[in-house]
Amino acid sequence: MQSPAIAQYTQPHQFEPLLPQTGLDALRERSRAVIEQSLRLTAAAHPDTLASLRELVREMNSYYSNRIEGQSTHPHNIGRALRHDFSDKPDVARLQRVALAHIDAERALESGVGGSAMPLSSAFIQQAHHALYSRLNEAGRFTADGEVISPGQWRTRQVAVGRHEPPPPEALAAFLDRFDEVYTPPHRLEDQLIVAAAAHQRMAWIHPFIDGNGRACRLQTHCALWPLSGGLWSVSRGLARQRDEYYERLDAADAPRQGDLDGRGNLSEKELRRWCEWLVGICEDQVSFMTRMFHLDGMKTRIQALISFRAAHDKRIRPEAALPLYHLFLAGPTARGEFLQMTGLGERTARTLLSNLIEAGLVTSTGHVAPVRFAFPLDALQFLLPELYPEAATRED
């Protein structure tokens, strides 16, 4: 028999269970495999190359998290915002600033993970909300109804989220305290994905802010998984590509207990476990995808294909660039003289080629005599990392 609906949630026991209690062996095995594959990914290329990828993923997280909210801007406009080049169209410029705020907030929040910051805590999600919205001016901090969003401020009035009516403002502290009791303490390695998944759903259920809850929850989950992902794969990408199912499964896990075999809490344990299984599956897909992309033979072939294509359409790019570029991918920062030698070209021709590669964004350097590094420009992703960020190859809006 289904539990009767509660008119208003005022007691923390009303959103139990906070973790699934049954059917965990298979889920833990899947989680362990995701974690192991993710940790291996950190050895797939030179750390400097991975750092370049991490910056790309951070841009991508911004794009996808905002797209989930129906407020995304084109990847090329995000790239322009990173160069402080904002559109003269007010609506486009506003979305550029939201994207830039998300990128900067994510970077700032990541820097605290591993220290005193506990990502799966109410203090951290308050910090995440503040980190995002404090980077927007007041004109960019309005709800759809015209209400000002105060960075990091807990909700002070009641709201409804679809069919769900979260706890009233006066009860938030009790629910957040219970959240901290369950999710903040250390958990076994194989449980960390499961705990992060459950925390994402239950924090969304609490809905602690007047607006921006989804973005803040995704920032929190990203940072909770940071020690495992290293920022090399994106939960938001997986959620955005299944946006409707994301919302449907979040909503399903709000369901009340479905009879005596559905756990002992007020809410459905079965639906919470299904949510956790689904989110672990999202992580499986993203880690597996990025692992395939970084297979060394595959990357070598894609670099060759990229350079062949560019050389056929741009006389400034020569086929001899493929080998030294692959070396940069594997070995990281390389002295300019060594890069020039690997081309097999005469010095003047090789220097011109390197300058053209830097201008094209395929190679970066901090100065005229500094080492050169591998890069992931948006217009090369369809070759280097196909299907990772396909929107980057489309025309601008």
Structural topology:
Elements: H1 24-41, H2 47-68, H3 75-82, H4 90-110, H5 122-133, H6 172-183, H7 192-206, H8 213-229, H9 235-241, H10 243-252, H11 269-293, H12 296-313, H13 322-331, H14 336-343, H15 347-359, E1 363-365, E2 372-374, H16 381-384
Antiparallel strand pairs: 1-2
Helix pairs in contact: 1-11, 2-4, 2-9, 3-4, 4-5, 5-8, 6-7, 7-8, 7-11, 9-10, 9-11, 12-13, 13-14, 14-15
Written account of the structure:
The chain is mainly α and about 400 residues long. It folds into two domains: about 10-295, Fic-like fold (Orthogonal Bundle); about 295-395, Winged helix-like DNA-binding domain superfamily/Winged helix DNA-binding domain (Arc Repressor Mutant, subunit A, Orthogonal Bundle), CATH 1.10.10.10. About 55% of the residues lie in helices and about 0% in strands. It has helices at about 25-40, 45-70, 75-80, 90-110, 120-135, 170-185, 190-205, 215-230, 235-240, 245-250, 270-295, 295-315, 320-330, 335-345, 345-360, 380-385; strands at about 365, 370-375. α2 crosses α4 (about 90-110), α5 crosses α8 (about 215-230) and α6 packs antiparallel against α7. The relative contact order is 0.14.
Condensed summary:
This protein is an all-alpha fold and 397 residues long.
Number of strands: 2
Q: State the CATH class of the largest domain.
A: Mainly Alpha
Shape: elongated
CATH architecture type of the largest domain: Orthogonal Bundle
Looking at CATH, the homologous superfamily of the largest domain is: Fido-like domain
Give the total of domains. 2
Radius of gyration: 23 Å
User: Which regions are unreliable across 5 or more consecutive residues at pLDDT < 50?
Assistant: none
By DSSP (H or I, 4+ residues per run), the number of helices equals: 16
Helix content: 55-70%
Oligomer: single chain
Element string (H = helix, E = strand): HHHHHHHHHHHHHHHEEH
* Secondary-structure content class: mainly alpha
What is the distance, rounded to the nearest whole angstrom, between the alpha carbons of the first and last residues? 51 Å
- Main beta sheet strand tally, sense and closure: 2 strands, antiparallel
